[in-house]
Amino acid sequence: ENAALHFEEIKKKETFKRFLDYFVSTQDAEAKQETETNGLSCSDNVLMLPMNDQIKELQTIIRDVNTSSSDFLFNADRLIRLVVEESLNLLPYSPWTVETPTSNFYKGVRFSTGNCGVSIVRSGEVMEKGLRECCRSMRIGKILILKDHDTGDAKVMYAKLIADIAKRHILLLYPVMNSGKTVAKAIEILRSHGVSVRNIILVNLFCTPHSLDVLRDEFPDLRIVTSECDDNPPNHFCEKYFGTSM
């Protein structure tokens, strides 16, 4: 009888251990899936906005076919502002002490000099307003890149950049990225003007896993800030923002 009770006790412990192992493995799998969904597993150089209900709602409204033009603009600008604000955290700052109205001194920071924006025309222009609202004095250059209908390759048609751009940190504006070819071509133009890839921050709203792989393979030092990495980005974004369709 004692042996039977001992055997039953062992079975209960083994059953509980199997259940515990299963529970832990399930939790690990869910955590891994959530991390991959949020894009946090991409790399140290890819910063995904932490997913929360507010950001998810903005992404939902932007995708909804029934969203009015005014609601689309309002919520698109909100998402742009969030991504721009996060990108500004990657720019260099320097210590700065100020005197307060109560004659105290506060040790803070301020932007180091030498920052600018570059928008990839035309879609990148939707993000210029958000950047200027955060940094009113920041200068913004432009690069126009079109796809060659015969080869499918990106072709530079126009580039207007700041004279001393090689000395600056750059926020490269491009909201929706599918293949990564257009951004790669823009980075090549910046490099031809003496810009280090380490000084470029891609400010993006939506991208595909493929486009991230392309850019990380070609430019491992490039830093990318985005709100979402998904195989089906809202490719109607710029057309609806400018009111040319939808």
UniProtKB/TrEMBL annotation:
The protein's UniProt keywords, in alphabetical order, are: Cytoplasm, GTP-binding, Nucleotide-binding, Nucleus
| Matches recorded under InterPro entries | PRTase-like, PRTase_dom
Q: Where in the cell is it found?
A: Cytoplasm; Nucleus
Q: Which GO terms describe its cellular component?
A: cytoplasm; nucleus
Q: Which Pfam families match?
A: UPRTase
Keyword Nucleus included in the entry's annotation: yes
Q: Which residues does UniProt assign to the signal peptide?
A: none
Recorded GO molecular functions are: GTP binding
Claim: Nucleotide-binding is one of the keywords in the record: yes
Q: Where is the Phosphoribosyltransferase domain?
A: 52-231
Q: Which family does it belong to?
A: Belongs to the UPRTase family.
- State the protein's name: Uracil phosphoribosyltransferase homolog
